[in-house]
Design a protein that fits this description.
Layout lengths: L4 H7 L4 E7 L2 H10 L7 E11 L5 E4 L4 E8 L8 H17 L4 E4 L3 E4 L2 E13 L2 E12 L16 H5 L5 H16 L3 H11 L6 E4 L2 E8 L5 E5 L4 E4 L4 E3 L8
Parallel strand pairs: 1-2
Antiparallel strand pairs: 2-3, 2-4, 4-8, 5-6, 6-7, 7-8, 9-10, 9-13, 10-11, 11-12
Helix pairs in contact: 3-5, 3-6
Bound molecules: biotin.
C-alpha cells in the first residue's frame, strides 16, 4: 500500500525517479527532459506540495492517498495532441481494471467515475530552439483522498470509494504506466477513435467557457465542436465543460 523506491523498483521495468515529497512532478520531469531523459521515463511522488492543474488551478496530492506522476514522451510535433488522449485513456483503463463499472472521459481528459472526477491530466510541451523537445504527461489520481466535508465532495471521488476495496498504489502505478505504453504503440487514428468513444458529453447540451450549446463532436486535434444555441459552430480548444439543462432557448 505504501509507495517507496524499493517497492517501485521491484515492480517497474523502466527508467524512473521516485520522490517522497515534491512541489510538482511535472516541474521535475521538465528539467529531466531538458537533461536528456529517455522517452517513457517517469517521475513519481508520494506527495505533491504544489501540484499544478489545468487552467492554472492547484492540484491536491496529499501523502499516502493519491497517485502523482509525470511521464516524459517525445512524440513528433504533429502527434503532440495525442498525449492528452493517451493519458485519459490509460486512466480510464486503470479505473476499469480497479473495478469501477461506470467510467467515462469528460472532455478533454478528466476521468470520471460515477459521474465524479477521479483523476486529472496536465500535459505540457517543452520546446527548445523552436522545436518540440518532448511532452510531459502529468497524471493525478485520487486513490483514497477523503473529500467528505470539502468543497469538492459533490464533484470528486476516489477510486476506493467506487470499488469499496483497498487498492495497492504501487500496483496502480505499474498498471497505469503499462497502459500508457500500450496506447503509445497504437496509431493516431486508434487513439483518437478510442478517446472519442469514451467521451461522456458528446450529443449532450453543455456549457463551456460561458457558452451553451450542443457538444456535437471532437476534431482530430482534440478540440470540441459545439453548435451554440445561436446555431453558430464553435471549436473549443481548452476549457471546462459542464452538462447544461436540456431546455433550448427560442430567439
Ligand atoms: C487537472 O486540473 O485536472 C489536471 C491535474 C493534473 C495533476 C497532475 S499530478 C502529477 C502532475 N504534476 C502536477 O503538478 N500536475 C500533474
Amino acid at each position: 500500500m505504501t509507495l517507496s523506491l524499493d517497492i517501485l523498483q521491484g515492480k517497474l521495468a523502466r527508467c524512473f525517479r521516485f520522490y517522497q515529497s515534491v512541489d510538482s512532478t511535472n516541474d521535475l520531469a521538465k528539467d529531466w527532459l531538458l537533461d536528456g531523459a529517455p522517452a517513457g521515463a517517469a517521475v513519481i511522488a508520494d506527495e505533491q506540495r504544489r501540484g499544478r492543474g489545468r487552467q492554472g488551478r492547484l492540484w491536491h496530492s496529499p501523502p499516502g492517498v493519491a497517485l502523482a506522476l509525470s511521464v516524459l514522451l517525445r512524440p513528433a510535433e504533429e502527434e503532440a495532441a495525442l498525449v492528452n488522449m493517451i493519458g485519459a485513456l490509460a486512466v480510464y483503463d486503470l479505473a476499469k481494471q480497479a473495478g469501477c463499472d461506470e467510467a467515462g472521459i469528460k472532455w478533454p481528459n478528466d476521468v470520471q467515475v460515477n459521474g465524479k472526477k477521479v483523476s486529472g491530466v496536465l500535459t505540457e510541451n517543452v520546446w527548445e530552439s523552436g522545436r518540440l523537445l518532448g511532452v510531459v504527461l502529468g497524471i493525478g489520481v485520487n486513490v483514497r483522498v477523503d473529500f467528505a466535508g470539502t468543497d469538492l465532495h459533490a464533484s470528486a471521488i476516489s477510486l476506493e470509494d467506487a470499488t469499496q476495496a483497498p487498492l495497492d498504489r504501487a500496483e496502480l502505478v505499474r498498471h497505469l504506466l503499462r497502459r500508457i505504453d500500450c496506447w503509445r504503440d497504437k496509431s493516431a487514428e486508434e487513439i483518437f477513435m478510442a478517446w472519442r468513444r469514451r467521451l461522456n458529453m458528446l450529443g449532450k447540451r453543455v456549457t463551456v467557457n460561458g457558452v451553451q450549446g450542443l457538444a456535437q463532436d471532437v476534431a482530430p486535434s482534440g478540440a470540441l465542436r459545439i453548435k451554440t444555441d445561436k446555431a453558430e459552430a464553435l471549436l473549443v480548444h481548452a476549457g471546462d465543460v459542464f452538462e447544461a439543462p436540456n431546455t433550448w432557448s427560442v430567439e
